Amino acid sequence: MRMELRVCQHCYDGTHGNDRKTEITRDMVACAEQIREYKDLINLDAVYITKVEDGEPNEAEALSVVVAGIEGDTVTLRDTQLVIEDADERILVYPEPADILEVLVRNLDQIDQQTRQNVGIELSAEGESMRT
């Protein structure tokens, strides 16, 4: 199984000026980094974290799936998504930040059950509000 979190570099850096999105993006990356550290405990082969910037071709680091959406009359590529390839080589794509955060936190919960170490991440207030 492989997992790739793709996020907007500007959202992560906070240069878009949307503090809420920055906090949530940083929460997602922190969770993915922690999962990558303990991936063997939940049978993940690899965890990739890709930060994309405007003007980049939105290339995946490992799992070549890109989600699109329609805004007005324009098709746009989503820069934030979680892509998981399961053991049967099915591709699962989560484009919504609330779903992404939920999947990542559930993975951390699974890891937490496999180790004596506390692997949980303290989410921002924005991240916590998405989960309730």
User: How many extended strands?
Assistant: 6
Strand portion, in percent? 15-25%
Number of helical regions = 4
Mean pLDDT: 88
Spatial ordering of strands, largest sheet: 2-1-5-6
Question: What is the CA-atom radius of gyration, in angstroms?
Answer: 15 Å
Q: Could you characterize the architecture of this molecule?
A:
The chain has helices spanning 9-13, 19-37, 97-114, 125-131, and strands spanning 2-8, 46-52, 68-71, 74-77, 81-85, 91-94. The chain is of the alpha+beta class. The chain has one domain (2-131). Strand 3 (68-71) and strand 4 (74-77) form a beta hairpin. The model has no long low-confidence stretch (mean pLDDT 88).
Features:
two-stranded antiparallel ribbon; globular; 4-stranded mixed beta sheet; alpha+beta; 4 helices; 132 residues
How is this fold's topology laid out?
Elements: E1 2-8, H1 9-13, H2 19-37, E2 46-52, E3 68-71, E4 74-77, E5 81-85, E6 91-94, H3 97-114, H4 125-131
Parallel strand pairs: 1-2
Antiparallel strand pairs: 1-5, 3-4, 5-6
What does this entry show, briefly?
The protein has 132 residues and is an alpha+beta fold. Helices cover 37% and strands 23% of the residues.
